Inverse folding.
């Protein structure tokens, strides 16, 4: 029995909504969504209006805290760097896949991930859950292609099982009709056997809708995934909604918006101080009309209408105010005075302090860290530093990874189930890897207690990425530490080294890049090896003539090349092979530096530099940019 006036008002409100074909749940979620869209103040009068108290006006400056917090969390959890890789395991429930079957399923899952753009779509799912408290996803095939539809949760009423899976879903929403005074009501029902869409009916107040004609599509399962954002641990299946990010913080967000608006008004007030004349009668020569004809701006943006009392502004009609301009000469009678009245700025400091505290309360309560560019400073911050700075936000993101990671796995599993059904086999699926994975999909079905065919599920696990990529200094320090622990020997293979920098240089095929670099290195080594070979004497014991012997050992040693000379010659050959030194220039250097004729220089250079193409170095400004 309703005893309090508040309960009676709520009952009347719910009854009124029921007559209009709506519910209190719809309007509650709609109100939460307004804080994300920035439309929560649309029904209030303007901030510059003088008809209502300041606290009842719409703030002129909005912090957009809800949108910023939701988008940062969604990007942190499902950004392209941190988005998990879906890995098909070999062992599942009563199923062990062979290597070929696992590889076929992995290829199919990878193609589904690309076809659905799951990284982007999961950010949209998370955004929907954070702003409204729940998210609804419908999985299926459209013209043989994978489809993922996100439906506003305020339209949906799901029937949940104890494990959170959806047994049935009812979708109802209204749209305007041709008659501006009437609305059209739409209804869609999804069960495990069919997807039924009814013909729209007119909304008649106080009369329940009568659903008639419908179209139905046969189904083999209920392809719906429902996510309750931040639901209580004790939530039952009847509690279909969780909690939005801003739920319970509406007053704090409104206070922040109002303080920002008052700070803006304070800036307008101090930016144009008021001129006051004392002991002076009105002078028509120094007066101008008040209002638009006097140069005032639109009312809602006019500092004059917001900070100057009504008695000082004067009224409309023939009221006047003193004109002021840099070239205006004022002539005041004896005893008259004029002063510029301006604030000391103490009010602005009070407002700034309130803004700081409100931001702290909001970020602490929501678990979101908001940094601007000035507070982070310049330079390349280490990943560990970013983790410490974002610790509260990472804790929240970890919880979201569990909740929405499970939703991601269920979405992929549901898509595999749809592809394994008879409808997909009959209609066909436009996926290149579908035919190869079809036998493996058939093995993911078992037999239920009643003997009916039952879906077991694919053994898919999630391998999450790092929240923050390590900086160049992080990578360098890690490699140096590993090499020291390994006795100075390399700790990465050639392929791993190329893969670590592939994204930085736009390399898409790591294996092809490894083959290309190894081929270039082998060609350079071959040229250098040939040049060194031509420097060796033909015989280990060269023949000496009598005259040569008479010259003595010292004279013979003078004609040989020492180690430094050989190294210099090898370096010249390497530069020619690498394309940094023209062959003609190298030939001239060898002839002059080592007293070798043209034929000898050509023999030393071998094939190096044939068809020389100079290497183009970056401009000095580019090198400075690349160097940091």
């Amino acid at each position: 029995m309703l005893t309090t006036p508040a309960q009676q008002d709520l009952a009347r409100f719910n009854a009124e909504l029921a007559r209009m074909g709506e519910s209190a749940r719809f309007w509650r979620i709609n109100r939460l969504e307004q804080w994300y869209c920035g439309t929560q103040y649309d029904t209030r009068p303007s901030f510059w209006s003088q008809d209502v108290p300041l606290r009842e006006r719409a703030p002129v400056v909005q912090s957009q805290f809800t949108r910023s917090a939701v988008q940062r969390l969604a990007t942190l959890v499902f950004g392209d760097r941190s988005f998990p890789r879906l890995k098909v395991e070999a062992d599942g429930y009563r199923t062990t896949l062979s290597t070929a079957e696992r590889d076929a399923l992995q290829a199919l899952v990878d193609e589904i991930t690309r076809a659905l753009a799951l990284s982007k779509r999961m950010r949209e799912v998370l955004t929907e859950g954070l702003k409204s408290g729940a998210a609804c996803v419908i999985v299926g095939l459209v013209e043989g292609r994978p489809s993922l539809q996100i439906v506003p949760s305020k339209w949906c009423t799901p029937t949940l099982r104890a494990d959170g899976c959806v047994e049935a879903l009812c979708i109802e929403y209204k749209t305007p009709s041709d008659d501006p005074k009437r609305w059209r009501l739409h209804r869609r029902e999804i069960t495990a056997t069919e997807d039924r869409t009814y013909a729209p009916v007119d909304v008649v107040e106080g009369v329940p809708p009568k659903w008639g004609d419908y179209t139905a599509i046969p189904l083999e399962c209920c392809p719906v995934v429902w996510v309750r954002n931040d639901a209580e641990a004790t939530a039952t299946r009847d509690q279909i909604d969780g909690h939005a990010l801003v739920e319970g913080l509406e007053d704090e967000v409104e206070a922040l918006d109002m303080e920002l608006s008052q700070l803006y008004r304070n800036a307008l007030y101090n930016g144009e101080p008021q001129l006051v004349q004392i002991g002076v009668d009105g002078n028509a020569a120094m007066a101008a009309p008040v209002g638009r004809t006097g140069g005032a701006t639109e009312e809602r943006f006019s500092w004059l209408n917001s900070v100057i009392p009504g008695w000082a502004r004067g009224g409309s009609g023939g009221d006047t105010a003193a004109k002021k301009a840099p070239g205006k000469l004022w002539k005041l009678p004896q005893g008259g005075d004029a002063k510029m009245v301006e604030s000391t700025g103490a009010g602005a400091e009070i407002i700034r302090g309130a803004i700081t505290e409100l931001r702290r309360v909001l970020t602490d309560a929501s678990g979101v860290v908001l940094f601007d560019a000035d507070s982070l400073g310049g330079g390349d911050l280490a990943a560990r530093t970013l983790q410490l700075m974002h610790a509260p936000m990472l804790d929240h993101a970890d919880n979201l990874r569990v909740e929405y990671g499970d939703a991601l796995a269920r979405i992929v599993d549901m898509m595999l189930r749809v592809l394994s059904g008879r409808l997909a086999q009959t209609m066909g699926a436009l996926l290149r890897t579908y035919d190869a994975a079809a036998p493996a999909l058939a093995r993911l079905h078992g037999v239920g207690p009643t003997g009916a065919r039952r879906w077991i599920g694919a053994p898919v696990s999630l391998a999450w990425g790092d929240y923050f990529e390590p900086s160049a200094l992080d990578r360098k320090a890690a490699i140096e530490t590993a090499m020291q622990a390994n006795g100075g020997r390399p700790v990465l293979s050639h392929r791993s080294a190329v893969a670590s920098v592939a994204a930085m240089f736009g390399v898409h095929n790591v294996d092809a890049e490894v083959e290309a670099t190894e081929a270039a290195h082998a060609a350079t080594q071959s040229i250098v090896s040939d040049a060194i070979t031509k420097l060796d004497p033909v015989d280990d014991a060269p023949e000496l003539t009598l005259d040569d012997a008479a010259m003595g050992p010292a004279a013979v040693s003078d004609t040989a090349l020492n180690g430094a000379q050989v190294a210099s010659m090898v370096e010249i050959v390497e530069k020619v092979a690498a394309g940094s030194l023209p062959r003609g220039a190298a030939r001239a250097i060898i002839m002059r530096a080592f007293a070798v004729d043209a034929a000898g220089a050509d023999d030393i250079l071998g094939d190096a530099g044939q068809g020389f193409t100079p290497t183009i170095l970056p401009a000095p400004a580019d090198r400075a940019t690349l160097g940091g």
